[in-house]
């Protein structure tokens, strides 16, 4: 059997090729998505970008859901499999599809739930960061991007219809969990690990890239920490299924919270952090619980370090 094109390539070259494939994939899939949207709704967002920003229009919201579906498929899911096939015929091994213990999967789910107060606290601290005066223009640009992303998120998730929740869980929870973990944990971590010779460097480089990819400065640090947690879950379990399950739990839990808020079941302040005694207690509990659960994962699978 002939060797695959990238089987023996330099790790840095592999990283470049991976992101080029991702860029090419999202370009092709967004063109496909635009074609479908034009056929269904007569809207060409390449010619008229403003036509898909009126989030008060239910049709526009559905168009954005379709775009998110194509974006995740084109940027992460399909490129990860395509890249793996360029490295080896055993694409399952390359991507990290190895068996995982049920106890570790349960621990990973609990980690994501227990980490919520910690992530909310980090998000609160991240929002307090201010740019120097000479970078005020950059700060304004980041703020504008953040506001635009928040409006889109609110439009897509603020719906009390259970069917909409199910669709959102597919497009915003399941697909990103699969695609992003295959790229950033299944592929980036082993590549950077081989390049740098240090597993911790690999975990944190992947976490930084993972957070930067979202293009949201005011959520950069909590997302980076989340990425590092997912990275260590991958490294210590030896299976990409564990961070996929954890990532899906995080996304699905957030969507369910937003759904319950839209129905008035829980208050809209439920996921906000304030500097008071109650939240500080929850933060301490969160740190202890996450640390304990991560130690359990490490102790169960320390022989599987990549």
Give the overall shape: globular
Largest sheet, strands/sense/barrel? none
> How many β-strand runs?
0
**How many structural units, i.e. domains?**
2
The protein's oligomeric status is single chain
Overall mean pLDDT: 89
Q: Which residue ranges are poorly predicted, with pLDDT under 50 across at least 5 consecutive positions?
A: none
Query: How far is the N terminus from the C terminus?
Result: 27 Å
What structural category arises from helix and sheet content? mainly alpha
Total number of helices = 11
Q: In percent, how helical is the residue content?
A: over 70%
> How large is the radius of gyration?
20 Å
Order of helices and strands: HHHHHHHHHHH
Percentage of residues in DSSP E strands = under 5%
Report on the architecture of this protein.
With 306 residues, this protein is mainly α. The protein is globular. The mean pLDDT is 89. Helix content is 75%, strand content 0%. Helix 5 runs antiparallel to helix 9 and helix 9 runs parallel beside helix 11. The chain folds into two domains: 95 residues, no CATH class; 206 residues, no CATH class. The two termini are 27 Å apart.
In short:
This protein is 75% helix and 0% strand. It is mainly alpha-helical and 306 residues long.
SSE arrangement:
Layout: H1 11-41, H2 58-87, H3 91-95, H4 102-114, H5 116-128, H6 136-157, H7 162-196, H8 199-213, H9 220-237, H10 241-262, H11 277-301
Helix pairs in contact: 1-2, 1-7, 2-7, 4-10, 4-11, 5-9, 5-11, 7-8, 7-9, 7-10, 8-9, 9-10, 9-11
């Amino acid at each position: 059997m002939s060797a695959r094109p990238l089987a023996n390539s330099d790790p840095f070259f592999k990283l470049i090729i991976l992101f080029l494939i991702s860029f090419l994939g999202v370009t092709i899939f967004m063109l496909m998505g635009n074609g479908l949207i034009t056929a269904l709704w007569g809207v060409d967002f390449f010619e008229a970008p403003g036509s898909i920003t009126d989030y008060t229009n239910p049709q526009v919201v559905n168009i954005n859901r379709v775009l998110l579906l194509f974006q995740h498929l084109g940027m992460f899911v399909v490129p990860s499999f395509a890249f793996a096939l360029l490295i080896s015929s055993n694409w399952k091994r390359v991507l990290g599809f190895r068996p995982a213990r049920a106890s570790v999967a349960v621990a990973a789910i609990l980690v994501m739930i227990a980490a919520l107060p910690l992530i909310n606290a980090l998000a609160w601290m991240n929002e307090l960061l201010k740019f120097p005066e000479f970078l005020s223009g950059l700060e304004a640009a980041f703020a504008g991007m953040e506001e635009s992303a928040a409006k889109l998120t609110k439009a897509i998730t603020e719906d009390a219809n259970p069917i909409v929740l199910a669709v959102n869980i597919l497009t915003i929870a399941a697909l990103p969990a699969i695609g992003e973990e295959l790229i950033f944990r299944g592929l980036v971590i082993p590549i950077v690990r081989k390049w740098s010779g240090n597993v911790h460097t690999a975990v944190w480089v992947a976490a930084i890239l993972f957070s930067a990819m979202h293009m949201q400065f005011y959520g950069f640090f909590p997302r980076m920490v989340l990425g590092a947690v997912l990275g260590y879950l991958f490294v210590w379990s030896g299976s990409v299924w564990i961070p996929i399950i954890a990532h899906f739990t995080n996304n699905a839990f957030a969507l369910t919270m937003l759904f319950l808020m839209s129905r008035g079941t829980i208050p809209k302040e439920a996921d906000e952090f304030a500097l008071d005694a109650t939240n500080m207690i929850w933060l301490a509990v969160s740190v202890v619980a996450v640390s304990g659960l991560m130690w359990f994962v490490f102790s169960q699978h320390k022989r599987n370090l990549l």
